[in-house]
Write a structure and sequence with these properties.
By secondary structure, the protein is mainly alpha-helical. It has helices spanning 2-11, 14-22, 25-49, 59-70, 83-144. 12% of the residues are buried.
Length: 145
């Protein structure tokens, strides 16, 4: 039975696991939250620095800055010039790291789901066996008493 189960697990292709993830509301909630954070940060950055920052020519530049900052890549071609912009950058770096960790956990859960389901099934089967043996021992004790 174990070998059949393993073969079935191997047949589960990654795209099916990704589809499972896409059906989860938490994935979409996190995606909307992250994209909202990026666009709001870009808008705020553009509003704070568009008059002072010569490397900032358009909202697209601000969005590029927000994505590179949130992903902690920070190419350095667009940098903050104001104190407010620096505080925004630091907050976005911390939040970007947090959201990266959350996305990583979601994708890991999607990849590991079949294996975890299999392990959970095996645990339940073992618990049923232990319960059955416990009832048999109890009935033997009751009979001998």
């Amino acid at each position: 039975m174990k070998s059949t189960m393993r073969k079935n697990l191997r047949r589960t292709i990654p795209i099916q696991r990704f589809i499972w993830l896409m059906k989860k509301p938490v994935f979409w909630q996190l995606t909307i939250l992250v994209h909202s954070l990026l666009f709001c940060s870009a808008g705020l950055f553009y509003w704070l620095e568009s008059d002072l920052n010569t490397s900032l020519e358009s909202f697209q530049d601000a969005l590029y800055w927000a994505v590179s900052t949130a992903t902690t890549v920070g190419y350095g071609d667009i940098t903050t010039q104001t104190s407010s912009g620096k505080w925004l950058s630091m907050a976005l770096m911390v939040l970007g790291t947090l959201f990266s960790a959350l996305y990583t956990a979601l994708f890991a859960a999607a990849l590991m789901k079949p294996e975890l389901d299999h392990i959970e099934h095996e645990i339940i089967q073992e618990e049923l066996k232990v319960e059955s043996l416990s009832r048999k021992v109890q009935s033997l004790n009751d009979r001998d008493a």
